[in-house]
Amino acid sequence: MMFGVTGDLARKKLMPAVYDLANRGLLPPAFALTGFARREWGREDFAQVVHDSVKKYARTPWRQETWDQLSEGIRFVQGSFDDPAAFAELKRTVERLDERRGTGGNHAFYLSIPPSAFPQVIGQLRDSGLSDPQEGTWRRVVIEKPFGSDLKTANALNEVVSEVFPPDAVFRIDHYLGKETVQNLLALRFANQLFEPMWNSQYIDHVQITMAEDIGINGRAGYYDGIGAARDVIQNHLLQLLALTAMEEPASFDAADLRAEKEKVLRAVTLPPDLSVSTARGQYTDGWRGGERVGAFLEEDGIAPDSITETYAAIKVEIPNRRWNGTPFYLRAGKRLGRRVTEIALVFKKAPSPYFQQIEGSDVGTNALVIRVQPDEGVTLKFGSKVPGTTMEVRDVTMDFAYGNAFTDESPEAYERLILDVLLGDPPLFPRHQEVASSWQILDPITAFWATQGQPEQYRSGTWGPVGADDMMARDGRTWRRP
Question: Which SUPFAM superfamilies does the UniProt entry name for this protein (predicted)?
Answer without folding.
Answer: Glyceraldehyde-3-phosphate dehydrogenase-like, C-terminal domain (SSF55347), NAD(P)-binding Rossmann-fold domains (SSF51735)
